[in-house]
Design goal:
eleven-stranded mixed β-sheet; alpha/beta; globular
Length: 269
């Protein structure tokens, strides 16, 4: 499928986003050189535009953060015409004043993962600019889409950890001491793989908890994280809907077009 006939915009998120689409949504099964994506891609209309949706963790949340097929996911989206990706996600806060109900649009990323396949370029000597890992155009659309129920932060550094465990208190105090604001398990290599495929990409991060080093008591629990995410899901989805409507243009922006003048070892899908 070419970019002329497929959706130019995609959302990679949780299963709670399935009801974005009406009854006319269709499901696409896409094969890639990197195996199957997390789930079939759903394509439907959101705010009057064609949008693809891919559940990052699978339809039944069967993939842990370190086992998500990130390469297949991004490749599959690019192959059906997607050039812009919004990535809503849950995060822990490394700041006591950014509690649950805060939404941040990160402008920087720190990778603390290990062992994840993080590139399509294992040969060919290809080096990709990643100084500014997120698309400014998508970030602007997201930050302009605030809803009254959630507190918006228009910049943040998100540190991505391996998971599936949460941080120790010492680790989260260390992260906070660096001046980083958010901690997450899925934002990398998702962002860099999008960049390698010349797709605009922006994370929209909803705080579900204060990370362990900032909180007294037993620390972060999965049950509490899921419950907090569910509690704010309705306004969070409305924010993403508004961001979809606010995005101007459908092609990759100049900032995210990183291979100009470079001979690649394969053609981008």
């Amino acid at each position: 499928m070419s970019s002329d006939s497929g959706p130019a915009l995609a959302i990679i998120g949780g299963s709670g986003f399935y009801d974005f689409f009406g009854a006319d949504a269709r499901s696409l099964q896409v094969d890639t050189p990197y195996g199957a994506p997390s789930a079939p891609i759903t394509v439907g209309e959101v705010q009057g535009r064609l949008v693809a949706f891919l559940p990052r963790h699978g339809r039944s949340h069967e993939y842990s953060p370190h086992t998500v097929p990130y390469q297949a996911n991004l490749w599959a989206l690019r192959s059906i015409g997607v050039r812009r990706v919004l990535a809503p996600c849950a995060v822990g806060s490394l700041r006591a004043d950014w509690g649950p109900g805060t939404v941040a649009v990160p402008d920087q990323l720190v990778d603390r993962t290990s062992g994840r396949a993080q590139t399509y370029f294992d040969q060919g000597g290809i080096h990709v600019s990643f100084a500014d890992p997120y698309c400014d155009e998508l970030r602007a659309a997201a930050t302009a889409s605030a809803v009254p129920e959630l507190t918006m932060r228009d910049a943040a550094t998100m540190v991505v950890v391996q998971g599936p465990r949460f941080s120790t208190r010492a680790e989260s105090r260390w992260f906070a001491a660096q001046g980083w604001e958010l901690v997450n398990m899925t934002g990398y290599p998702e962002a860099v793989l999008a960049r390698e495929l010349e797709m605009c990409y922006a994370a929209i991060a909803m705080v579900t908890d204060l990370d362990a080093g900032l909180e007294a008591g037993e620390g972060v629990s999965a049950a509490a994280v899921f419950a907090e995410f569910e509690r704010n899901l309705v306004p969070f989805k409305e924010l993403v809907r508004r961001a979809v409507a606010a995005i101007d243009g459908e092609d990759t922006c100049a900032h995210c077009r990183v291979h100009d003048g470079v001979r690649l070892p394969f053609e981008l899908p």
